[in-house]
Amino acid sequence: MPPSNQTRVLLLNAMEKREKTLFRLEQGFELQFRLGPTLQGKHVTVYTNYPASGELFYRRKFRALSWHNPTGREDDSDKYCKLDLQISGSYQYYFSHENEKSGGGYIVVDPILRVGADNQVLHLDCVTLQTFLAKCLGPFEEWEDRLKVAKESGYNMIHFTPLQKLGLSRSCYSLADQLEVNPDFSSPNKKCTWSNIGNLVEKMKNEWNMLCITDVVYNHTAANSEWIRVHPECGYNLVNSPHLKPAWILDRALWHLSCSVAEGKYRDKGLPPSIENDHHLNCIRKIIWEDIYPKIKLWEFFQVDVNKAVQQFKTLLTPGNRKTKSDPNQHLQIIQDPEYKRLGCTVDMNIALATFIPHSNGPAAIEECCNWFQKKIEELNAEQFQQTAYHQEQAVTCLLETVVYERLADHGPKQGSVSRKYPLVTRYFTYPFKEMTLEEEELLMHQPDKACHFLAHNGWVMGDDPLRNFAEPGSNVYLRRELICWGDSVKLRYGNKPEDCPYLWAHMKKYTEITAKYFHGVRLDNCHSTPLHVAEYMLDTARKLRADLYVVAELFTGSEELDNIFVTRLGLSSLIREAMSAYNSHEEGRLVYRFGGEPVGSFVQPRLRPLMPAIAHALFMDVTHDNECPIQHRSEYDALPSSMIVSMACCATGSTKGYDELVPHQISVVSEERFYAKWNPAATPSTPGEVNFQTGIIAGRLAMNRLHQELGAKGFIQVFVDQVDEDIVAVTRHCPNTHQSVVAVSRTAFRDPKTSSYSKEVPQMCIPGKIEEVVLEARTIERNVSPYKKDEHFINGLPNYTVEIREHIQIQESKIIKQAGTAIKGPNEFVQEIEFENLTPGSVIIFRVSLDPKAQEAVGVLRNHLIQFSPHFKSGSLPDDRSAPILKNLFSSIASKLTLADLNQVLYRCDAEEQEDGGGCYNIPNWSPLKYAGLQGLMSVMADIRPKNDLGHPFCGNLRSGDWMIDYVSDRLISRAGACVEVGKWLKAMFVYLKQIPRYLIPCYFDAILVGAYTTLLDLAWSQMSSFVQNGSTFVKHLSLGSVQMCGIGKYPSLPNLSPALHDVPYRMNEITKEKEQCCVSLAAGLPHFSSGIFRCWGRDTFIALRGLMLITGRYLEARNIILAFASTMRHGLIPNLLGQGTHARFNCRDAVWWWLQCIQDYCKIVPNGTDILKCPVSRMYPTDDSPAQPAGTLDQPLYEVIQEAMQQHMQGIEFRERNAGPQLDRNMRDEGFNVTVGVDHETGFVFGGNRFNCGTWMDKMGESDRARNKGIPATPRDGSAVEIVGLCKSTIRWLLELSKKKVFPYQGVNIKRHGKKETITYDEWNRKIQGHFEKLFFVSENPADANEKHPNLVHKRGIYKDSYGASSPWCDYQLRPNFTIAMVVAPEIFSPERAWKALEIAEEKLLGPLGMKTLDPDDMVYCGVYDNALDSDHYNVAKGFNYHQGPEWLWPIGYFLRAKLYFSRLIGPEMYAKTVVLIKNVLSRHYVHLERSSWKGLPELTNENGQYCPFSCESQAWSIAVILEVLYDL
């Protein structure tokens, strides 16, 4: 059976039509359908006609597949439906969304072929087929002796041309009766029956291990078939296809011309019966144009009878009859007579009456009108005359081309004089009556009982669309004489369904059933012209009788896409490909590479992987029975090497009987009547009618066929083709499990060596590895026997050529090799250098090569250690007795000691992080540095290379060239501390073996080692996270790795020290001071720009990302430490934006403290016993606002006091100037910008602050351009009360109020001094103030007369929430930005649901981008969606990236937008909620795709407008990943 548990995944995307894509699968595979990004979240149903278990297949019967959702959660991004493929054939799938078909395609499941009495599997790539012309087998009792030649030659499949009774022409493909065995096979005393043939086929399968296939011919039947006379409706005749009448008349006229020419009647016009030159051809042209065409007047079939039409028109014009209803825009045109009578066409009189209107009812006016009408009809007739002339011109051209080929061309049949047997041109129609004059024959055309017997012959049309039936109406192929006609066969007319021609469908169904009953497969003859629906129906019938039917066909569509339509619709197992199409040895080698196998050294693919489009499986024939003879085209010496090249292809291969015997002419399927020779081991080369191993190349063929079957059966699936010189092709087949190779070197002889010169110098060849043996060496040689004479009774070949063959010899015994030396190309790389002396044209030599023993052992040991990751490596593995102690443990147990912070080191760390430690990311020469120093850096590149087997990539080149990357991976980890070292040591121990194998295998095994380690490490990471992650979708799991990516411990601590009194704080030994130091995980804001040094930690970024990356993922202790570390730096009631370890902190933002407070609230709610954090000690770095930095432990306070201080200071009012103000702190800021003010409006409760020279929220771009005069001006000051800060403040107050009621927080409010008096404002009071004023002051009412609107003249969008309230530039309050959605998530209670929903809808319409939210309304006059930080110009609004937050689409606000939609849709109602869930899944699917494709495995900080890539963005941003995780958590 095929390899177990292989799974392929087919991603479905909306409107994706895959009918021309070939998807090939094997029985035993599981096929999963998953939703692509365009369908995520939608209600999609997948339908297929693959039958349910235990049911029969019916092509039109589709069933819906059920979805499996592994997580069982609303986030069903992993859901799939599946098919377990157990039956071969072609199956259709399609999918619909909201009952509308949205896309679909086909899958083809390969048959499993079995031979021998024990039914052993014959893999498709092991097939070696030989074609026999059935009529040349002779009487049935002699078949075995003749077929034995194929058995002895090592073939395992025979293709018989049809075995049915043949038509008069004796062509193998013109069948007189599809149901009757050819009577030629019977002898006087014994009738041959189908069951006799069936018994022989069964015997060959069981005893000879050979399968048999035969042709099915659906397209035509012999013209003398008895049944077609009884059932003429089965063909295209003049009754059911009257459009053929003009073509029939032309055909009869040409027949009469032909007879006259044969009788010499045209000699006086320069045309004798024997046509010999161009003058004769010109005479034919002249006669047809001057005598034939004027006589048969073909144009009349397409014209209107003018007098009749004018008379009818005149009658209708008389006043009483005029009733017209017609579209005035319609023009008069000829309506073709469906019966195709002469002058039988008409026009629409209604249109005529509406077009030609008399100006009065007088006779003169009517007469004038009729004249106009007559003139128009004559014009239309003239057009038809012209059109017919074009057809006639083409007909003459095609006719003359045929005459040239049949009578004059050197490569043609040279038919000689025109006669009744060899007419001027082949007749296009049958004519079963006695001959008459052409005029008399034309009368028969209108008598249905006669006309039904004029049947169109079949043939083919050069360059025609194979999907179009050339005999149907609308095609003029017969009239234009474009058909290359088979005059012995009638084209069959099936119609669209069995009811259209019941007899024909039933007859052909019976024919198919006989074939499927007795044979293992079929060759679809003339497949490209067989109507697809007919072939589908017949093959369905065949497969009901024989499920594993082997179906082959030869297609001449000239296009792979068109080929695929036939392969997918019909489930073709193999497409016949011809080596004869190769014009030189180079092209022959290219075909071998094209038709099968993967490159040598290919990567091991995972068992679950995407289903990739395939090319059709090939049956690669050195020659087919339709091909001209290769001996005539090339030379007798080429038979052996060319068949060797074909035989080395990793696909099915085949040949035609006669090739091996060196028959020097094509064995004609029409005229050959001699029999094949029989097998006789004792025969001499000149014995007539007998062959053996001395004949032709039969001995070589046996060796090649045996080898081909061995290579296919033993998994030699990798192929390398080397064009050694213009005539020598070396083909390598390599087994990726054992790493054995077979190398076949063939010296072709496309030119005859006797008449062409071949170089004496044959290039030296280098074969990597150790040559175990010469499997075969063979040369085509001439021998001294009487020369070839064509035998009268038996098909015979050239007796004076044979092969000199030696098998399984040692290299020193070879007669073809001069010497073989061993060179060492590099460490562990042995190469054998071969010098040839007798590799003459027509020679082949095959080497069996294995790795050098030391390398073979290293590979075996490597495979043994890789079994822990995949059972795939069991074959070819060797036990490891001398391995390093560390390899005695499984990698998973070594890795189990790693923490998530360690995994940050092992898997990630960008260049800037590594440089802090004195290292850097690995740089691949001629390419680029890796994104990460850890394994993810390598895995991102390999994930692109692996599926395509892109072994030419610089990454693979670097691995093959030296050990630098290999050493980098292990040494980097060994130089670290702790558990990372052990992982490094394990890798190093594995790499010891890796370095001992040939360089070309290193990429593949390096990948296998890293894939195994990497997947183990990911599983380990997830096992240390929350149940939300562990039980989550793949999307959730991959997002959660953002936590590992962003949270790490650098060489230098990023966070200030925590209180010594705090428990569970991690410590390490400082390498330089040798003292104990704290080593807490810190969170990078983004990679690569905000990952190291002073720019790693930012208060705002940390706390926007903390919930998603640390709390939801279950990293509670590390989250606690970060919260407390920032708490320790509080000053002026604020926490810093840029942390700078606390000592270099900048307290210049108004929002970070509120995000910090929100995180403490989230911590208390998510973490078990979370409120305990409120009592944790905080070591104050700045005990007072003005004190210098103090060491940890100087003054400890519980966290709740620090929280209270922040609230108190805000209510009291904060005013200070940044320390160290001036250009040394910020080179762009103006002096006023360093003044920080924050306070609370006592009436509304809103926090306010800032001025027009600073920017205290996340939209913090400061102008930098002198040229554009924006330097020192913030692009978005957002002073006044910013909407998200008001929301965050409301959320905190509500929470503190709840805590104080529960006595968990000891304060009920804040105490301040105002006007010299102490005042208390309770949290309850503060909470009510915000609640009471928020909608009143922030909502932009739909009512223009709303009294709360201070600046009605500035309103330009209604139904939205202001971005701020009380800005120094009032216009800014009214700008539509995404910030209000943040307030909606943290404080939904201050919004009324209906208004909130309306505002969200406007935001969706105006701001939602593919990945992020536009930071400004595109209708705003300063909107600009493309951020370019490097561009300096005069443009105030964009110079030096001034528009950073004025349009570009930032990712993190989309998380709040989606969460707000989710919250309020629940309040609106279930229908809206369901719609919102679909929207969310759809939006998130784009993030999923980005995350999968990103080599950083992250989500960016921002994109330019409409999701375009922004080169200035961080490639992976902490808050971008965090918010998407939060949406999935809320879902």
Keywords:
1531 residues, alpha/beta, 8-stranded parallel barrel, 7-stranded mixed β-sheet, 40 helices, 34% helix, 17% strand, globular
Describe the 3D structure.
There is one protein chain. The mean pLDDT is 94. Strand 14 (164-166) and strand 15 (175-181) form a beta hairpin. The protein contains 40 helices and 57 strands. The strands form 18 sheets. The chain has an eight-stranded parallel barrel with strand order 12-13-16-22-23-24-27-28, surrounded by four helices. A seven-stranded mixed beta sheet has the order 25-31-32-33-39-35-36, with helices on one face. By secondary structure, it is an alpha/beta fold.
Overall geometry comes to globular
In percent, how helical is the residue content?
25-40%
Low-confidence stretches: none
Describe the main β-sheet briefly.
8 strands, parallel, barrel
Task: Tell me the Rg in angstroms.
Answer: 43 Å
Mean pLDDT: 94
> Strand fraction band?
15-25%
Strand order of the largest sheet: 12-13-16-22-23-24-27-28
Compute the number of helices: 40
Count the strands?
57
Span of the ends, CA to CA: 43 Å
Structural class: alpha/beta
Short overview:
With 1531 residues, this protein is of the alpha/beta class. It has an 8-stranded parallel β-barrel with strand order 12-13-16-22-23-24-27-28, surrounded by 4 helices. A 7-stranded mixed β-sheet has the order 25-31-32-33-39-35-36, covered by helices on one side. Strands 2, 3, 5, 6, 8 and 9 form a 6-stranded mixed β-sheet that branches.
